[in-house]
Amino acid sequence: MKILLVEDEPKVAAFIKKGLEEQSFEVDQAYDGLFGVKLALQNEYDLIILDIILPHMSGLDVCREIRKHNTTVSILMLTALGTTDDKITGLDAGADDYLTKPFEFKELLARMRALTRRTNDSGSGEKLTIADLEMDVVKKTVTRSGKPINLTAREFALLHYLLRNRERVVSRVDITEQVWETSFDTGSNVIDVYINFLRKKIDKDHPSKLIHTLVGMGYVLKEQAEV
């Protein structure tokens, strides 16, 4: 696996880089946001580990700039800002997951495994459809009414889970365990935020809505209109 690490704190960067290389990962490193963008756009990476607070260009802006050109690479954001709103801001910028400093290296590895498993092993060659929505799991493409929809790696993983469970209600706990392979703080609205991301991309411009909320129960992907 080839990884881009964008982190300006020398001790933190050295700790992460050494740990990853001991796990046989190939690691490129940038100490500021501008160089991080340059490397991200010049090379192909399986995963980008991105700090939020960086010289010259913030991690949020780096993430947004990368997403303009690459919607599929997995981005794991590191943040010393631990509030839910701060995390949502990172996810809204295009990150697939976040990790709050300080963290244990084994937790970083677990988040990395979950991200790469969901993006690289999300299916075995099938196409998933409901109504006029189609996902090609191998090509990592999504269309509705024949028009392409650009999704981040995490959005793709969430939609893939909903499609595999179409017509079935899935709870927030189901989603955190199956898509994030972790858990969020009680009261966190991360799942709701990502569902809204998908709604804007999947349903906004279509009269027939596919993603529905069942209050107190969860979400369901189905063709029927909401009651």
Question: How many beta-strand segments?
Answer: 11
| CA-atom Rg in angstroms | 18 Å
Shape descriptor reads globular
The computed structural class is alpha/beta
Q: What features would you highlight for this structure?
A:
41% helix; 227 residues; four-stranded antiparallel β-sheet; five-stranded parallel β-sheet; alpha/beta; globular
Describe the structure.
The protein is α/β, with parallel strands linked by helices and about 230 residues long. It has eight helices and eleven strands. It has helices at about 10-20, 35-40, 60-70, 85-90, 105-120, 155-165, 170-180, 190-200, and strands at about 1-5, 25-30, 45-50, 75-80, 95-100, 125-130, 135, 140-145, 145-150, 210-215, 220. The chain has a five-stranded parallel sheet with strand order 2-1-3-4-5, sandwiched between helices. Strand 4 (about 75-80), helix 4 and strand 5 (about 95-100) form a beta-alpha-beta unit. Helix 2 (about 35-40) runs parallel beside helix 3, helix 4 runs parallel beside helix 8 and helix 6 packs across helix 7 (about 170-180). The longest helix is centred in the middle third of the chain and has 16 residues, at about 105-120. It is globular, with a radius of gyration of 18 Å. The mean pLDDT is about 85.
Brief account:
The protein has 227 residues and is an alpha/beta fold.
Give a topology summary.
Blueprint: E1 2-6, H1 10-22, E2 26-30, H2 33-42, E3 47-51, H3 59-69, E4 74-79, H4 84-92, E5 97-100, H5 105-120, E6 127-130, E7 133-136, E8 141-144, E9 147-148, H6 153-164, H7 172-180, H8 190-202, E10 211-214, E11 218-221
